[in-house]
Design brief:
alpha/beta, single chain, 14% strand, six-stranded parallel β-sheet, elongated, Rossmann fold
Length: 208
Amino acid sequence: MKTKQKTTRILFADDHQIVREGLSRLIDKEDGLEIVAEAENGLEAVRLAAELSPDLTILDLRMPVMDGAAAAMKILESRPSAKVLLLTSFATAGEVKTALDGGVLGAVVKDSSSDTIIRAIRATAGGEKFISPEIAATIAEQRLAPNLSERQKDILRLVAKGFNNDEIAARIGITRHGVKAHLAIAFERLGASSRAEAATLAMSLDII
């Protein structure tokens, strides 16, 4: 007698309806996979994950209200055994690496082939790690500490301590615009998109 395959219950969060519909159509064709709930932002995903305890939560990295990385951390804080897969539209590295270090099992680029996305879903649902080659390559590149000036390192240390640009400018004796210019260079070299991400990456790479 054939054993019935256990259905993997999936929560999917993305702020674009067309993306949610596309993944739903893809999963509908697959045996043993079912989307049981959808969310339009990270905060809603956190709430639904707490209510439904899905087997796998798929989170778009860029969402309003709360982004996918932050939502993943909230979900894992309340349920450490939760399985989370990040979906991103570009081969980002900083936020994904932080999320992976925090317990997220995988990250896949949105424009990957259907087969790759399904493999990512099945792998992470089964407790395995899965990272798109593009993202893995970017993370590997950024493991080589980027070259930052001492001034940029000083600014990032103050960012990490919670100081704003005006406070940093006053402390190190340059203009607010000078602080912003140094941060822009640090963002580019670290592959970061925010002050918090830049400071976190710099600390993780032992730059500051």
